[in-house]
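We now fix the convention by which a protein and its fold are recorded. The integers have meaning only within a learned vocabulary of local backbone shapes. A complete example follows; check for yourself that the lines match position by position.
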Amino acid sequence: MRVVIAEDAVLLREGLAGLLERFGHTVAAAVGDAPALIEAVAAHRPDVVVTDVRMPPGFADEGLRAALELRGREPGLAVLVLSQYVEQTYAAELLASGAGAGIGYLLKDRIGDVREFVEALDRVAAGGTVVDPEVVRQLLRRRRDPLARLTPREHEVLGLIAEGRSNASIAKELFVTEAAVAKHIAGIFAKLDLPPAADGHRRVLAVLAYLRG
């Protein structure tokens, strides 16, 4: 798998490159700013991009905006945002881009296992969706009123839905039956005025579409 990395911190950038190569991936380019990211993607046509949010020249949201531009040009380009914080202005838009396929947003300080990170990257590259639950929580706070209708258990289930969990996985996590999970999911989508969907990926897309709307 060919990867382009965009990270302004040299040690982290080189560390990521070495890590991914150790797991058998090819790092086509490792750059330190948003313009270089766009150029590297055009030159190397990677399978997946790993980018930070805050990068030169402005150290604001350049990485995220570059990712949005790249997804606009090529919706099938897989992008994993790896950041220290949630940039709420563009995060939901990015996560819903390209029909929501091949996209992820993880927080650096919440990644506790190297193999878990590499597996998340592989999922994104394969067209999956990977979203840190904390990212979801912060984005959901922007839409307080509709979410106030959810019960505490429905909030728990919604967080797990946004991670792309299956009904069986949610049931195991919460120690309830799959039938109970299905009932909670039906209630969530009804309260948020979203149609229920058949699989985990579409449920994540529905949550993200709601956040963007």
